[in-house]
Amino acid sequence: MNSRDLVLGRLRAALAADPPTTTGAVPRDYRQSGALDLDRLVQRLTDYRAQVHRAAEDTVAETIAALLPSGATVVVPPGLPAGWLPPTVTVLPDTGLDNRQIGAADAVVTAAAVAVAETGTVVLDGSPDQGRRVISLLPDRHVCVVRAGQVVATVPEALTRLVPHRPLTWISGPSATSDIELNRVEGVHGPRTLHVVLLS
Amino acid sequence: MSQVFLGMPATAPAGVGHLRGTESFPRAARRALADPQLRRNLGHATTTIRAKSAAVIDELPDWAQLRAAGSAIKTDVLARLPELLVQLEAKVTEAGGVVHWAADANDANRIVTDLVRATGSDRVIKVKSMATQEIGLNEALAAAGIEPVETDLAELIVQLGDDRPSHILVPAIHRNRAEIREIFLRAMPGVDPALTDEPAALAAVARRYLRQTFLSTRVAVSGANFAVAQTGTLAVVESEGNGRMCLTLPETLITVMGIEKVVPTWQDLEVFLQLLPRASTGERMNPYTSMWTGVTSGDGPQAFHLVLLDNGRSAVLADRTGRQALHCIRCSACLNVCPVYERTGGHAYGSVYPGPIGAVLSPQLTGVADNASLPYASSLCGACYDACPVGINIPELLVHLRDQVPHPRAEATAMAAAGYTMDRPRLYEAAQRATRLGRLAGRRGRGLPPPLTGWTASRDLPEPPEQTFRQWWAQR
C-alpha cells in the first residue's frame, strides 16, 4: 500500500468511526464590502511606515523623480507605462535581468493589481506592468503606483478581483519583523522603503 | 504490521521529530519558573502582543462573524478532508506541481531528503514552518549531509544559539535584545563588535548575513498556511521577506504541509486573511503574503513539490471531540493570553506546539500516554477559548484528554474506596469522624500519606470542621 492510499484510508476510517454531524454550511454574515475611502488607504499604509504620495496620471513622473536620486538605476517590468518614469533615472527594463543586476539596482517601480484600504495592502499579480516577483523583492526601494480604480475597501472585495492562478504578492508596508521582543521593526529582507504613489 | 491496521488512524511515531518532551511538564516548568530573566522576557513580550492584537481586533465590527465563519469552514474541511485533499492534489498537479503523501515524519523526511538530493544541492533555505519543526526535518537533512538554513529571524536566533523554539509565532520569544546581540556576535562571522542591541540594528545584521545565502541556494523548503482545494493555490503569510526570497529565488521549492491546512474555496481565504494577522502578530495585515499555484513559467521556482503530511493527524480526526484541535491556524493567540504559558514559556511543554493548543494537540498527535502531563498544564481559566480566532474550545479538550490520561493505580483505588464509603452511610460517618483526627496533626500534617502524596504536593487539604453537618443535624 503506498502512502497516498494509506493516508486517505486512515482519514476515511477516522471519519467513519465517528462521523461528523456538520451540514457544511458556512455563515458568511461578515462584511463583504465597504464604502471606498482613499484617505483610509493612505492612513493605513502610513501607519505601517509606507510613504504615500498623491499624484495624477500626468504627474507620476515628477512625483517619482522627487523620490529617487538623480542617476538612480531603476528596474521596471516590461509593461510599465513609459510616461511614469522621469528622465533623471537610469531605467533597467526587466527583459531577463539576473538576480545580481536586480539586487544591485537602487529601486524598482511597478504598478499594482489591487489595493485594500482597510488593511493598507497593495497586491501585485505578475501582470506586465508589475513583472516577475523577484524584481519587487531584491531592490531596497519599491515604488508602487496604484490607480484609484484599483482600490477596494475590504479583503473579500480584493479576492474577488484577483485571479488565483497568478503568482500573488500581498504587501502591507515595508519588510518588517516582530521577532525581537514582539515589537515591529521595519527593514529585514524585503525592500526597506516602500513608496506608494496613489493616482486620483 | 498486518493488513488490518494499515488503514487505521495512527499516531505520530516516537524517535523522530519534536512532539515529545524528555520530562514531564511540572518538572520542566519548575526549572523555567526559577529563571527570572525568562519570566521578564515572556511577560514583556506577551503583554505587548496582547495589547496590539486587542486593538486591531476591536477595529473590526464583524470579528465575531469572521470567527464563526472560520470555525465553520474548518469543521467542513475536516468532514470532507479526504475529498478535499484529492481535489487539491489534482489542481496542484494540473498547475505543474508534484504532490507527495507522507504517512508520518519518517516518510516526509525521506521524501524531502530524496528530492533535495535529486537536485544535487547540499544546502536548503527554509521558511519558518511548524510542520518541518514537528517532523525534525533539519536533523534528517543534516544527517544526509544537507545543510538547512533557517531564514526567519527568530528561527535564525534559535538555530545560531543552538536553542529550541519556545513559541509558535516567535520561536525566540524567550530571548531579549541583549541576548540576541550576544548570539549574533558569537555565531555570525564578521559581525562588527560595535553592534548595538537596537532591534533595527539586529535586523540589519540578519539581512546582510542571509542575502548571499538567498541568492546562491537552489532549493527552498517551506510550510504553508493555507492550500485552496478549488484552485490548487498555496499561501504563506510572513513579515520579513525571507519567505518571499525562499518562494521566489530558488529553482526548486518543496512545501511540507499538514493535511488539515487545506481550505475548500478561494473565497475562504477572505476569512482567514482577516483572522490570522490580527490574532497572531496583532497587525491589520502582515507585511507579506505570497500565493502561488503550481509553477509559473518565467517567474519563481520551476519545480514545485507539495508534501502532504499526516503524522498523527488521522488519529486526531478519529476523535469527535478532539478533532477540533485540527482547526488551529497556528496564530499563537492562545499562548499569548495563557497565564501558564506566560510564566513557564514554551520549552516546558516539550513539544514544538507549546501553550494551550500544544497541550491539546501534542498529546493527540502522539497518543495521550506519551504526553500525559500536558492536559494538566492549564488552570482551565478559558482565556485561550476566548482568544482563539477559530473558536477551538481548548478547555473542553483539556478536560476530555484528562479523562484519557492513564491515572496512577493508587488514585483509582482511593477513588473506588471513596465511592464505596459514600454509598454506605455508616461507613461514611465513621470516615468523617476519622478525618477530625486530622485536626490534631495541624497544618504541616495535612498532606495525604503515600502513595497519594502527589495529590497534596500542590494542594492543601481543607481543615476538617470541628463538627460535621450530620452531627450538627443530629444535635439540633
Automatic annotation (TrEMBL), chain A:
InterPro entries named in the record: FTHF_cligase-like_sf, LUD_dom, NagB/RpiA_transferase-like
Lineage: Bacteria, Bacillati, Actinomycetota, Actinomycetes, Micromonosporales
Gene source species: Micromonospora radicis
PANTHER family named in the record: LACTATE UTILIZATION PROTEIN C
Top-level taxon of origin: Bacteria
SUPFAM superfamilies assigned: NagB/RpiA/CoA transferase-like
LUD domain residues: 100-199
Signal peptide segment: none
A Pfam family annotated for this UniProt entry: LUD_dom
This protein's name: Lactate utilization protein C
